[in-house]
Structure formats: C-alpha cells, structure tokens
Amino acid sequence: MNKVPMTGEGFASLKEELRWRQQEERPRIIEAISEARSHGDLSENAEYHAAKEAQSLNEGRVNELEDLIARAEVIDVTKLSGDKVKFGATVVLVDEDTEEKKTYQIVGDQEADVKSGRISISSPIARALIGKEVGDAIEVNAPGGARGYEIVQVQFI
User: Fold this and answer.
1) Domain 2-73 belongs to what architecture?
2) 3-state secondary structure the chain
3) pTM across the whole model
4) pLDDT, tens digit, for every residue of 70-88?
C-alpha cells in the first residue's frame, strides 16, 4: 500500500470532509431516499433514482477518503529545513520572461489548489523544482510552451 504524502492541513481537510459526508450528507441522503420512496412506484420515481445516485457518489467518496486517510503520510512542514526544494517547501520563483514573482507551496495531490498557490508534488513545475535550490533556473514545459523560472527563495512555513 503506497503512502500518500500530505501536509497536516491537508490531512485535517480530508478528515473534515469525511466527517461531513458521514455525519451530515449521509443522513440527508437517507432522508431524501425515504421521502422519495414514500411517493410510491419506484420504477418511474426520478427523485428516488436521483437520491440513490447521490448516495452512491457519496459512499464512493467516503471509501476514497477512508483509503487516503489510512495511507496518509503526514509531513509537518514546519519541522523541515534546508536549502533544497522538497515536499512542503514554499518556493518563490521569478518568471525569466516577465520578471513576475510567483509563490508556490509543494503539497500532496489531494490538497493541491493552484489558485491558493499550492501545487501538487506530481505537477510538472513541482517535479522540475524538487532538489533545486536558490539561484537555480528551471524550465517547465507548459501547455503554452516552455517557461523559464529562477528560484529566489525556499522556505518551510
């Protein structure tokens, strides 16, 4: 069973989603099924079929969350240090073409959110960054073509 690296924040988020799905969403769906069942004939009852589908999707996600939580390897980023980029690092990059600064934290696949500056450890940019240090230049093949960046700061916060 492969371990899934994630930050403490990502782990807490998964546990909260699991709690919500089990303690709030599951009872709501059961109530919807019960309500739809009371309408009679199930063969042509769209509400019933929609509720059963919602139940299936919810239970599938519950199973997925339980698996991820069981395989989680929680990494306390605040206890990491060093000059090289690794999981959990917050990296400040400068685009070599536009001189625009970008800040990314390298996190687990499940907690990635580019809008929040959190990129997946398996993303092309994170893979290019791993093992590099301040002053190094990287090139990332992006959908719009290759982009060059220089690492200006690496921190573990």
Assistant:
1) Orthogonal Bundle (1.10)
2) CCCEEEEHHHHHHHHHHHHHHHHHHHHHHHHHHHHHHCCCCCCCCHHHHHHHHHHHHHHHHHHHHHHHHHHEEEECHHHCCCCECCCCCEEEEEECCCCCEEEEEEECHHHCEHHHCEEECCCHHHHHHCCCECCCEEEEEECCEEEEEEEEEEECC
3) 0.82
4) 999 999 998 998 889 999 9
